[in-house]
Amino acid sequence: MTFTIRPLRAEELAAFFDYLNDHLRDNGRGGTPLFQPMSRSSAGFPPEKVNGFSTGLHAGFGQQGWRRVWVALTGEQIIGHIDLRSRPDPASRHRCLLGMGVHRDARRGGLGSALVGTASAWAREQGLEWLDLEVLEGNAPARSLYHKCGFVQTGMIPDLFRIDGERLGYVFMSLQLAAGADRMDV
What we know:
Elements: E1 4-7, H1 13-24, H2 47-58, E2 67-74, E3 77-86, E4 95-102, H3 111-126, E5 130-136, H4 140-148, E6 152-163, E7 166-176
Parallel strand pairs: 4-5
Antiparallel strand pairs: 1-2, 2-3, 3-4, 5-7, 6-7
């Protein structure tokens, strides 16, 4: 599959949220593990998360609440995304949180690794030292991808979520970027 990866443009937010809502239809359904800590019957991307994406894109890098999003496209169709966002504590400005997703028709073709590579390269250029993520314990495909990309498990909280009668833990993973990336003031 041929694709391009580029930053999300502000005028594409509506199409991006359409993609996310479609992507969430797979959450825990049809053999796909839960990848978002929300019920399988959820109506779509929650309004507070929509707001977080929208406001974070307009915040300057280094400002509290900043967020950057890249989309993978085949033609004009979004087939994947990755986002980096600030950690909530100002003393953690040398780190950021990563989230991502790949459309059901584009999985297992190298897109996930390409998205992680794009976001990692940008983070290094900004002087960030760590990428952190949280992944549901039962999401073996995602955990495998992150491990392949160099992330290591740094912790886990068992039974953090109770979703649709299941007890689910959260696994924390981190990727240390270039050792000398000390350009950020903290």
